[in-house]
User: Fold FAD dependent oxidoreductase from Marinobacter santoriniensis NKSG1.
Amino acid sequence: MAGLTAAIQLSKRGHDVSVFEKSRGPGGRLSSKRVTDGAVDFGAQYFTARDAGFRRFLDEYAGPGTYGHWPARFVFQRKDGSRETFPQDERFVGVPRMTAVSRALSAHVKLQAGTRIRNLARKDSTWDLVTVDGDRLGPFDRVILTVPPAQASDILLESGLADLAGRIERMAGSLLPCWAVALHYREPLDPGFDGLRCEHPVFFWIGNNTSKPGRPSHGQWWMLHADPDWTREHLDTPAEEVFRKLKEAFSELADIAAEPDDWLAHRWLYARSEHNDRPGSLWFADHGIGLAGDWLSGGRVEGAYLSASDLVSAMVD
Ligand SMILES: Cc1cc2nc3c(=O)[nH]c(=O)nc-3n(C[C@H](O)[C@H](O)[C@H](O)COP(=O)(O)OP(=O)(O)OC[C@H]3O[C@@H](n4cnc5c(N)ncnc54)[C@H](O)[C@@H]3O)c2cc1C
Assistant:
């Protein structure tokens, strides 16, 4: 979201921008995995659009048909098991999957996927980007890094920019890991919520993916996100064992006897930001290097947009 936002906003101002992405497609932590009857959202579960500019940006560049309101029953569960409803807020999701938004945004930028950047190399007053395969891309007048802080730090250190890496050292470990497991049930379940954020030894979040708008309804897909501490303790546990443990904990929490007939798992090393700092973005004008991303603007999808917008303003100034 941060990379696409910065690229679109700078292109709009007449700059020639190229985006390089290590994965096969854009989206990053806006992530959906295909399943037989559609797709399940593995990363961000929903997003807010409190900032009017974010809403306008989405309407103009992603299109109003690519996202919609998720009118779900959101519940917060405390350590002692007591539950209360979530604060009122408009919550949005991509339709028919989270990546519908990033796909649509990426149509406005020059994107080269499957390209992992290892370091930046100075060439006179410009930068080349060097890929892990040793290819050199460029020259570019300015470079924006919108990767998570640990990866930004690696790129800066590999580029001989230890002083800049030092500026983000404190934040480098600020993204928490998360095991995500999707379970499919042939018959719909009703544990009394569609989304549950909890203080729980195993879970951080449980959501009914099928209750989101535009999702097919052959049975139900449930998304389970493990608590960061639980994930840290199970980082090297095989996916099948993680699936079994989360499934059993879900059956107990939701008091259900049904067994899932399909499942998928993904381990996020960098999921949500634990920082509430909001420097917005970092612009190192002397080097022509900028940093943006959710971790610089309070975390979350909307934070990634706000951070990139903040950086573009600083660069244009
Ligand atoms: C499990 C989970 C649940 C979440 N739940 C929510 C939620 O409910 N609501 C919410 O608002 N937010 C949620 N988030 C957070 C939200 O997804 C992020 O805040 C937001 O998507 C971050 O966007 P970004 O552009 O800053 O970073 P990213 O999406 O991480 O983008 C960084 C991109 O850089 C690419 N990259 C990394 N290294 C390189 C390299 N060397 N070369 C080239 N490309 C590289 C990555 O592949 C990625 O595409 C969740 C995240 C996870 C993982």
User: Anything to note?
Assistant: The longest helix spans residues 300-316. The chain is about 25% helix and 30% strand. The pocket of flavin-adenine dinucleotide is lined by residues 1-3, 20-23, 28-30, 43-47, 116-117, 146-148, 151, 178, 180, 225, 268, 271-272, 293-294, 299-301, 303-304 (CB under 6 Å). Residues 26 and 230 are 29 Å apart (CA to CA).
